[in-house]
């Protein structure tokens, strides 16, 4: 059965704005993004929201719902009570362009700072042979849909704009970990580099990133903590790095 829900949605541009109240129809099985679309169709035609797949796979519809970073298309209205006011705001860590749409280019800049996969020159494509365990390790990290919810929630940059130049953030720690753990990546990505150039040392393992990841990637346990441990190992013994590459093949 349908009902009328109370929505408060952030409206504005370039950081200037306010919360606007709406009463809007909700039908069985709908998600928050459906309600935002109904608002566009009936009451607020210029309401800006980014979305694409409506299936939890493109990572576009990231927003904060009652203060929690979520995908609008994967947040069912049945998670809320019918008398609850649902507040929808843009991601807090990135500058707002308009309404619920943020400028997430910080993340693309960080992506460009990470050197790409560097295979050995003497092994041709098609000749790579990997242990299943190594394949699985990469696959977990490659499930990332680049929703940037983890980047948004991490306290290192959420309230500290000044940390942004030095901190790549959890999404990029999994990228560095994936490459560093790859047996055919020959670039020395010594986690000291992650520690010093990408700001791994700022992370104090609060695990908020892991909690919000819609792909359930164990960002902290499977990428950040192993990288921190390896950073310590290698700092004292560079042969450990060499050994780790040789024995992983
Ligand atoms: Fe989103 Fe998870 Fe990728 Fe972070 S690691 S960008 S939370 S899918
Ligand atoms: Fe931030 Fe995740 Fe570390 S939320 S502090 S990167 S564990
Ligand atoms: Fe693609 Fe929500 S619209 S993840």
Automatic annotation (TrEMBL):
Question: Which Pfam families does the annotation name?
Answer: Fer2_3 (PF13085), Fer4_8 (PF13183)
The entry assigns this protein to a family as follows:
Belongs to the succinate dehydrogenase/fumarate reductase iron-sulfur protein family.
Q: Which domain of life is it from?
A: Bacteria
What keywords are assigned to this protein? 2Fe-2S, 4Fe-4S, Iron, Iron-sulfur, Metal-binding, Oxidoreductase
Which SUPFAM superfamilies does its entry note? Answer: 2Fe-2S ferredoxin-like, alpha-helical ferredoxin
Please give the Gene3D superfamilies that the UniProt record associates with this protein. 3.10.20.30, Alpha-helical ferredoxin
Is Metal-binding included in the keywords of this UniProt record?
Answer: yes
Question: Domain named 2Fe-2S ferredoxin-type: which ranges?
Answer: 5-92
Which cofactors are named for this entry? Answer: [3Fe-4S] cluster; [4Fe-4S] cluster; [2Fe-2S] cluster
Q: Which InterPro entries is this protein grouped with?
A: 2Fe-2S_ferredoxin-like_sf (IPR036010), 2Fe-2S_ferredoxin-type (IPR001041), 2Fe2S_fd_BS (IPR006058), 4Fe4S_Fe-S-bd (IPR017896), Beta-grasp_dom_sf (IPR012675), Helical_ferredxn (IPR009051), SDH/FRD_Iron-Sulfur (IPR050573), Succ_DH/fum_Rdtase_Fe-S (IPR004489)
Its pathway is: Carbohydrate metabolism; tricarboxylic acid cycle
Q: What is this protein called?
A: Succinate dehydrogenase/fumarate reductase iron-sulfur subunit
């Amino acid at each position: 059965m349908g009902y009328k829900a109370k929505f408060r949605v952030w409206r504005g541009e370039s950081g200037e704005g306010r919360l606007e109240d709406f009463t809007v129809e909700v039908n069985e099985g709908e998600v928050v993004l459906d309600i935002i679309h109904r608002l566009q169709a009936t009451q607020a035609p210029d309401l800006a929201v980014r979305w694409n797949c409506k299936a939890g796979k493109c990572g576009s519809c990231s927003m904060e719902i009652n203060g929690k970073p979520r995908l609008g298309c994967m947040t069912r209205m049945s998670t809320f009570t019918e008398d609850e006011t649902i507040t929808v705001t843009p991601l807090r860590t990135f500058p707002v362009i308009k309404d619920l749409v943020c400028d997430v280019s910080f993340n693309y800049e960080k992506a460009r700072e990470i050197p790409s996969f560097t295979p050995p020159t003497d092994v041709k494509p098609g000749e790579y042979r990997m242990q299943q365990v190594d394949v699985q390790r990469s696959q977990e990290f490659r499930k990332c849909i680049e929703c940037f919810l983890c980047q948004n929630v991490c306290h290192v940059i959420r309230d500290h704009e000044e940390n942004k130049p030095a901190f790549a953030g959890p999404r990029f720690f999994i990228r560095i970990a994936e490459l560093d753990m790859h047996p055919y990546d020959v670039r020395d990505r010594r986690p000291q580099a992650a520690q010093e150039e990408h700001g791994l040392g700022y992370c104090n393992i609060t695990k908020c990133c892991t909690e919000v990841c819609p792909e359930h990637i164990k960002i902290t346990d499977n990428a950040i903590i192993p990288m921190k441990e390896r950073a310590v190992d290698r700092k004292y013994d560079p042969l450990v790095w060499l050994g780790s590459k040789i024995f992983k093949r």
